[in-house]
User: Fold these one by one.
Assistant:
Number 1:
Amino acid sequence: MFKKKGFLYELNKNRIMFLMIAPTLLFFLINSYAPMVGIYYAFTSYDFAGGLFGSPFVGLDNFKFLTQSGILLKLTINTLGYNVVFIILGNVISIGAAILLSEVRGKLFKKLSQSIMFLPYFVSFVLISVLAFNMFNADSGFVNQLLKSLGFDPVDIYNTPWLWPFLITAFYIWKNLGYSMVIYLASIMGISDEYYEAAKIDGANIFQRIWYITIPMLKSTFIILLLFALGSIMKGQFDLFYQLVGNNGVLFNVTDIVDTYVYRSLKVNFDIGMATAAGLYQSIFGFVMIMTVNYIIKKINDDYALF
Amino acid sequence: MRKGKKKLLTIGTSLFLTASLFAGCSGNAKTGETTSNTSTEAPTVKEEAVKEETVKEATGIDTSKKVELQFYMLGDAPKDLKLIQDEVNKMALEDLNATVKFNFTTWTDWDQKYKLLLSSGQPIDLIFTAEWTNYQSYAMKGAFLPLDDLIPKAAPKLQAYVPQDFWEAVKVDKKIYTVPAIWKEYVNDGIAYREDLRKKYNLPKPESLETLEQYLDGIRKNEPDMLPLADTEVSHVDSIRQMTTKTVNTNDKVPYGLSIMYDTPRDVTSYWGSPQHLEDLKMFRSWQEKGYFMKNMLNIKDSGSDIFAAGKAAAILGSENPNRFGDAVVKVKSLHPDWELGYSPYPNMKGFSSPVHPIHNGFAVPRSSKNPERALAFYEKMVTDKRYNWLTQYGIEGKNFEIEDGKYYKMLGDAQSNGFTREGMNGWAWRNPEFMLFDKSYQAVLDMFDEMDKIAKPNIFQGFGEDWTSYQAEKAALLQVEKQYLYPLNDGMVKDVEAGLKLFMEKAKKAGLDKIQAEYTKQWIKYLDDNNIK
Amino acid sequence: MDDNILSSRVFRMMAYLIITIFSLLCLFPFLLIISGSLTANESIIRDGFHLIPKVFSLEGYEMVFIFPAQLIKAYSVTIFVTVVGTLVGLFLITMAGYVLQRKDFKYRNPLSFFIYFTTLFGGGLVPWYIMLTTYFGLADTYAVLILPGLMTPFLIILMKNFIKSAIPEELFESAKIDGANDFRIYYSIVLKLAMPGIATVGLFLALTYWNDWFMSSLFINDVSMYQLQYYLYNTINTMMFVSQMATGTGVTLGRDIPTESTKMAMAIVVTGPIIFLYPFVQRYFVKGLTIGAVKG
């Protein structure tokens, strides 16, 4: 009975559960794993006569455009930096907002404010960039009109690189707050009332309740969001950066990430090999990251690990 | 007003329905055929079998098996495409025992889709090519079938119709991969400006750099709320080159900061980093300081032509070719009758013009085609057979268009109710000068073309197909450096121009500028040799 | 009771204040978009955006509704795809999430990894495109709009987490002792108790389907099968192509398009209906807490 049994034994014992998860596994096998043969493109110089396996093998040549002018290090640092800030600030703010919202009593207020905070999620970055230009441009922008009327000197925001990490972070949080807040809100809903009852009997005040019950219960949700964010730490938010910054080279030093660089470099001569190579770099980076972090989490508390 | 519009729309729709009911008949009437096609299946098949013999003889290809051709064009499909397709198929079935399916990529991510279509191996028989779709690069990488042996066999009429020098001009590595269009057009830019303001303030016509600056200055002084220039990003830079040099290209630029003059094409020098470059950049800086440009032109999302058309700016350097200017004039006439637009084409300043190169519009047969012969035979019909040509360019006569004053095209209804507007299938490549119909308002553009014809020299630049395989990585890196360090200089955003240019050149060299320039020059000289251009 | 404690009251006041500020920040740009959609295009380009339109015009909406039949068709495609995709996807995701959090399912970790791994590595667009078109022949079918979007690793793992935290382990065990099979437990316990989580995941899935344009762009040739977002997005792209690319090509559009106001009108037309979905989902976020609040 206590002896470990083989796969077939498991299959038979849990056949219903296997059946329940089978469509999902099949889905990922076909939709995600099968096309992975395409990773091989990263090592070939594509030609149409040869296709995937008939094109000449070129080793690591396709990675050269990333390392060519020594830009890769800067891109990596920028991408990492932004994503770390996004993860920390984004989660802190949405946890905060979810807790505040869960403590508010007015039903209509609660519903209305929640809906409104979801609105930015629907605004595409194309539109956001149009509105941003309208606010920030040096000739007639809203911000500068305001500064002028208050007696300050106007600022040419699009020519002031140090402002942009703050602006981009602000836009990121603004746009995603509603979405990530819902996740935490749903987690808070899942917390059993019994905990709060018990706390009340013990005479805990509102801060203690939040600190000792709500926040610890959000830990597992946070870890999931964290792990998913870490896996794609070299990717992401292309539209945010590309639409807001566009081709304004003045800002590149502080705003260029791997995705925008790849897009700009390959826009004219889109090359399957080079695009795949760049993606592979991002994947491997994320993979190493995630394996490390998951390992650490598993050491501390197996329950929270992703796999 | 709005109600009326809506009503018109409904009427349009019902008309459309009725027309489609009758379409079968009119199609047959046109082909001079009896009703055999619309009757039952069996006789049709029999008749086809009989016809095969004659068809075979006419085209020299085997048409015994019925096939469906896959035809791909860029852009959006016209609303009535299905109707036109059915009409075409009636004829094609009879002539070639083939039907065609017209597919469109839309303009969303068209370049990515174009690549996918060609690399996925799905059967495609005809696809649009142009220098801006990277025809040469695709051809070099083996995406298309060589047509040299196919054309004489499958499309002899087409072969004769396209002049020999056009066939020569589209060759890549000595082989023909596309069927070029032969209609001659000019797509060079010019300065579009507000003639009414120019007259009002008695400013000179902007016909050279000097007079342009006077014009801009006058606008700045007299219309303080107006932007002198509508250009965004860096579109003005190439225009200044067109204005001040006899550069070999008609649009865009010679890449990688190289300078090649039309009269001495073998002298390839670097424009980037030259004293002239510094001088130009200093001028842009002074323009920025004088307020000729808007400040954040790298970030604005409105297009330059929109800004110009909205009356926010008084001139635009970088996006008005004769076609577009003609369009703008028509638009302005209806929206702002009190305005007047002026136009100074760059060829007048350069002293010569160049029509588009034959590769500018063409159709190729992709490697994945299952029926290359039939595809070419069909394309021959589209180009040389007036019935096919008119149907696919202008739609159905009497429904989509009619002929005015014996020679002009007139659209029926408006752009909304008409399901097939002029060149609704983006048929730039199968325009046939003999059959072409123009809108009356287009006469102005044709007149401009005539002017340019007078000073025309052959286009020697556009036919050159660069092979960047050996410096792909450098090219990608350089592109980034250019945007990061040169764009701000181009827009006068950098105070110390000299230091800025030095920094740019340093970074560009690090990215591999020298290697790229050397490789490009080598290929260019070889191209000149191969084509006997002195 | 603790409502009367000063600290709680101050806290709630602060909560109201902060949330109000957040909400205003989120609302303001949206008001600009609404106003922009009602402004004449020329005025947007000349004067920029204002909360009250400087020159009122409906031309943006006229452009969006230029072919009403096509627009309605695109709406119905999107609604169909969203409903079917969300229902089927939710069914599969909840099942997978449920199985993966069962402690007595031995392979839960390797299988979680199997699913998660696909977020890290991908073969890129080309092989995937070839597979769906050439091998499965899914081009120009509704299936291609629905199938590839049914599940994402993120939603599965999120679901697993929601179920885990909403339903105590003991409940499964006692149900098993009562003789319920694994599917029955899922059906009668999980689907009832994990509602806030299911609603959240369902909302996210529905939003993904609603916002999707990429599938239409890649796989659909037939205008009558376009999703709403693509139908509209494509109009913008056509305008952009003509303004950016066309100078060297000699292409003109032959009609005047109010670019900016159209963009804004599209955002309104697209966002409008889905916002009405949110309150339905919201029930699950508010109800539980009200009970808690009353008790507390």
Note: Chain B is about 50% helix and 10% strand.
Number 2:
Amino acid sequence: MIACVAVIGHQNNPLYIQSFTEADDALKLHHIVHCSLDVVEERVNNPKKSGPTLNETFLGLLYPTENYKVYGYLTNTKVKFILVTTDLDVRDADVRNFFRRFHAAYVDAVSNPFHVPGKKITSKTFAERVSNIVKSFGLSSAG
Amino acid sequence: MAREVSESCIDSLLTEMVSSYCNRFDANKPELAGRRIEAIGYQVGHQLAERYTMERPRFSDHLEAIKFICKDFWSEVFKKQIDNLKTNHRGTFVLQDNKFRWLARMSVDPSIENVDLSQDTSALAENKATQAMGMHLYFPCGIIRGALSNLGIPCAVSADISNLPACSFVVRIKA
Amino acid sequence: MDPGTTPLGKMLLEEITPVVMVLRTPLVEEACLKNDLSFIQMLSPFCTFSNIDVPVRTSSDQPYRLQKFKLRLFYESDIRQPNLEVAKERLKQVITQAGEKDNSELCSDPPPIGSESEILPSWFEFFNKELVRTVSFSDHEAFDHPVACLLVVSSKDEQPINRFVDLFNTNKLPSLLNDGAMDPKILKHYLLVHDNQDRSSEKATKLLTEMKNTFGTNDCHMLCINSSQDGQIEHQDSLWAPCKSVASPNQHLGCLLNIDDLNEIKDLMQELSSKHIIPYMEQKVRALNQQVSATRKGFRNQIKNLWWRKGKEDTPDSPSGLMYTFSSIESQIRVLGDYAFMLRDYELALSNYRLISTDYKLDKAWKRYAGVQEMMGLAYFMLDQSRKEAEYCMENAFNTYLKIGSSGQQNATRCGLWWIEMLKTRDQYKEAATVYFRICSEESLHSAVMLEQASYCYLLSQPRMLHKYGFHLVLSGDRYKKCDQIKHAIRTYRSAISVYKGTTWSYIKDHVYFHIGQWYAFLGMYDVAFTHLLEVLTCSHQSKTTQELFLREFLQIVQRTGKTFEALKLQLPVINISSLKVVFEDHRTYASPAVASVRESLWRSLEEDMIPSLSTARTNWLELQSKLLPKKYKESNICVAGEAIKVDIEFENPLKIPISISSVSLICELSELDEMTSDTSHSATELWNDEHKLLGDMSSDASLFTLSEVDFTLGGDETKLVQLTVTPKVEGSLRIVGIRWKLSGSVVGYYSLESNLGKRKTAKGRRKPKHSPGNDLKFVVIKSLPKLEGFIHSLPEKAYAGDLRHLVLELRNQSEFSVKNLKMKISHPRFLNIGDHEDLNLEIPDCLEKKTNVEQTDVPADSKKVSHGVFLFPEDISIEGERPLLWPLWLRAAVPGTISLYIVIYYEMGDASSVMRYRTLRMHYNLQVLPSLDVSFTISPCPSKLQEFLVRMDVVNKTSSESFQVNQLSSVGWQWEISLLQAVDAIFPSQSLIAGQALSCFFMLKSLRKSSRTEEKISSLSRSPGSDVRLAPEGNKDALFDICCSPLADFHDCERLQQHELSNQEDTNTVDFILISRPLKSDINPGTSDAPRLFSHHACHCSTASASPISWVVAGPRTKCHDFSVSFCEINLRMIIYNASDAVASVGINTHDSPGGNVQLSDGNTVASGNQAGWHSLSPVDDIKINSDVLGSNVGKSQSPESVSPFIWSGTSSTRVQLEPMSSTEIPLQICVFSPGTYDLSNYVLNWNLLHVNNEENVGKTKQTSGTSPGYPYYLTVLPSD
């Protein structure tokens, strides 16, 4: 189950953080996302450790915390997507697929002429789309 | 996913935009109008870059990004690639499009054409035409700049139409 | 790099050194305690040797020299595993002390990131050491086992020899020796301590010899202490520094030990270590080494060993490892390893450790295995080779310790710490941090410290990992808090702030700030708590409950302090600076606040021809009095003492919960003029520094000015516009500095207007550079002046169009000084008109009723001094004191729609001495005019008679409910006379127009002028008695109204002007009508019928001219008898042509004889029906009907197509005449008729064109300049005479 997804701007400023857990651990998730930024930077700075192929947007598993797994994704425009999930065996394909769709949603959101680049994403449609993507996470590993 | 837009619509939209900025909003302040149009282009480029780089690995250096602009980005926007890319290896790139689409259908104000072609008038017509063209080039320049800066490459972009219909964009990357 | 110099190396060289067990008698302690030192403390400084230059030969044959060396002395009682609880207590103490220690910088701001070295707390090292010590004297490792034993007896003891013996009796010895974990046969040394203060030392020396005889010569020593008598020996502090107890820092230790005592001690220890302990150790190492190599080296031994291990496969594995007694080969190898380690022969140590680690592994003696791995790691490190190996070993050991559960926890910690140090020395801070993280036990205090250290590792790692730094700080902070180490918690959180400050991670930020605030409050440091909680207050992103929580906490803290806090940057509520609006009255005064919002330019345009020299509205009078005031006030605003300055500003509540705000007021400072210079140099920032001073003398300022205070509550997400006022009382220069308010009665917030205005200016770039925003808030207060207040009585909100009312303008002047030279201007004279003073108490409609003896008496309008729209009140009028000036106004709702009426009243001060010469009072009213009667007139010339016109009046009642009673219709001007065509009752059967009813009726209008001269008309047009038609039913008794008396006439002039603009009719012969009506008396309830009102509707410039300026009539006989047997009949006719235009016209008449006059007739009809439709329907056609009825046959006959033309025009078939303007002429015509019948003589055409003498006024006129018009039908009946 996905605990939290986040979009982080290229200045490490949160553009969108949404947690999908009942418990109010928003703060904790914020912290986890915030910390993951370090790992992202690390991955990017010495690419040998980073994702399977060089400079791939998908950064793979950033780090496992005691009860979360944190995955990262870094777009060409230095925007970071963070996925915090609670289930322990996650198929890589699922995560990639998730990030692909999430990225698409993000692109559509920021292509809205009324969206100010670098500001928080407040679009309702984006939120809906994300929650749909989250719901369907892991259900279809194909493409 | 890939949405399509009638090319004629785009052309007329651009023409209208340029004319309304030059003749209506900021008439008699051409440089301001230019900046406005460039800003619009910037935003467009900014967003397009986001979209067109979706499925590709990150660029490791500037050259890659520029190449992306020349190949994929350009063919997404103009259905053709940049024909010629030059660089002095000091952060300046020259992207040349031998038949730049948005200038292809531009015609110079007939009123100037019609006058008897004595030297001065023709010259006047000449630079009037280039001026008009220049106005139309702020937008693509803005697009390039927006795309690059979104890819983390702050730069200044200018256009050169010394030999039409070829148009070359000069990208100076700010160190 | 020499590993020995690294922190870890140093630590090892201190911690892993030979232990000497000390057994002493109480008297010995006693002797030492004279120096406030225990025996061991006394010796300890001399147990570390920086270069004790001892040759050591262990396994290999060539010796190496040992430089650094240290002995660790312990009393026998201390040589055992410290129990956990005590250890924990000890650690807790350490932490708490540390917390107390850095209490000082608890209030100071956290240092910025980058100065790591100083923020890394110093007590970590100490703490870690303590942590390591908690697991000393474990039986699974040998380096804590005592190498030697020192038995100490005082010379005062009786029979010391026996004492020596029973000191070392087994039941008092530590368990290590008893339960066989180590060899009970241990190197012993006998020391006799002699206190020189007791007795001379010969007895002691005797004892020593005695000892030597019993215990052997070289194992006995004597130590004389306390040789100094006075006990004032000072030593450098470093000596016993570690022993200084915090309890009494100024005790001076070792006061009785003089220098040779110290030397003696030094020699003793030197000898002990170099001559005895080290040699003992090396020979033991050698022995063990041989033994080990004998039994274990070589292939055979390996095999045997393995086989043997297999043999005891089935033995239960006991991690405690008591299966290994000191005599067991494993223990001995371990001892060998440890001794070698302590003697720095790391290769030897390593090899042996390797040897047994496999054994232990096979035996599953995990703890020992881990211990050995640990030592291997350290050995690798000290050898500074194969880091991977070292780290592998440490990790291995660490995991193994953890694996064996709680018993291994402590060791795991120690091992982890060493490992971390190892990583740190290799700059692998990130890994170190992770190890710290793994050390964390569930026991929170311990893990708090570990996490904090981890965080610093992240900070030090390259590149920095600030995010994790912050996170771990927060984590450890929480842990600290859990075990009430609040100060530590605060410290960690505060350093965490430096990470989150300035980022948009608001949730985390709020959390951090909020908790710091809470904790400070917990410590009672409310001010700091306050400042931190301020950061959290405006958390619009938080949930409602969180916001409530924050606010509640904040207020609680404030209450707990008891005093009201003053916060310079209190963000609650948010003040919307862009909404700032300052309204003040200098020479411009406003009748009502709403008036101030009207555009200034509009007022200017109104005032410009009233005010002398209106160069720039603000400073014009200053130019006159520039000597009175310094130049620089010209750009600052002027206000008058005693008159309020109003400041409108918006408060916004960012939260979802309501907040109550009280005593909102401005902060102002009012200084005398002369010290103005100093004050203008005030910048806002300085001002905030001496803010409190400013508040201090707020009370004293009360004498200088008064402030309004506002209280209100803001609901969730609500914004309120609040008006604040300041009223200066004395002259000077007033500055509005800022705004202060109280948040829920306890917190005072300040807001500096100036600085924020400045910000706003910089924010949005383009502003007029010439006048800085601050100047909007600077005022020069001048001494109080008279000020007019005015309002209009009974001005209706809404009225029906045409409504005519009598209003009264009241002007008051509160001050005792008088004002004079009043002028007034009204924006819409068409609606509002100024009456004469005498008709102040007139009554509509009576005042308008025509008196019997009228015409000459009514006043001409020129009596009022109206100079281009400005009304000058009589000079004698001056207003002062309480006596108001009343002045009549006439209101007429001219046209439907909403009209805003602007009125400006200009007045000058009574005494010229006052700084301001004049002021203006601005009034503004909105009037909604509803449509009532809609009157339109159509005029057409009457063909039968020149100078007579038919007027058709169309009246529509546009109202929804009102019904009107039309009273009279008047035509203005003497040259017109209007009269009824029908009886009134025929026109108004119902005597009134009910709502929505339309009606049209006809009047006859006669022009009284002969061919009139233009100029006289113009002159007399202005005020000329028109003619009236009473439309009221006969029964009605009320009189006609005089359209020439003042209000009606004035309004009519306005209307003329107005409508002139609308229809640019230049042509001269137009007529104006005034329809006067009144609302029908509501007979349903006469009681409520209000004061009788009057409606006047003006229609001006109704053109009498038809489409063509040429009008004509054909005159002649209508019937004629003729005897056709004689000849055909000749008939003479006259055509009178009138030129109504103001130009010379040339008219040509063309007659043509064509068959079928009927065709002409029909033609004539259609053409004529353009504008004479109204006419045809009337009289002449009826006659025709009659005629044609009589003579139908003839008409029929005449219509027969085959008949030739029944008559011809004789005489000229075409005539042309010139016509002067406004003149008429007469042309003779003649026809010949050949047979009797009725003929229509309309088959002629007039073509005319105007020869314009003065073209320019005619350009663009719709009126045609030439045209042709067919003839009117003229019916002639010729009868045969017989």
Note: Chains B and C do not touch (no CB pair under 8 Å).
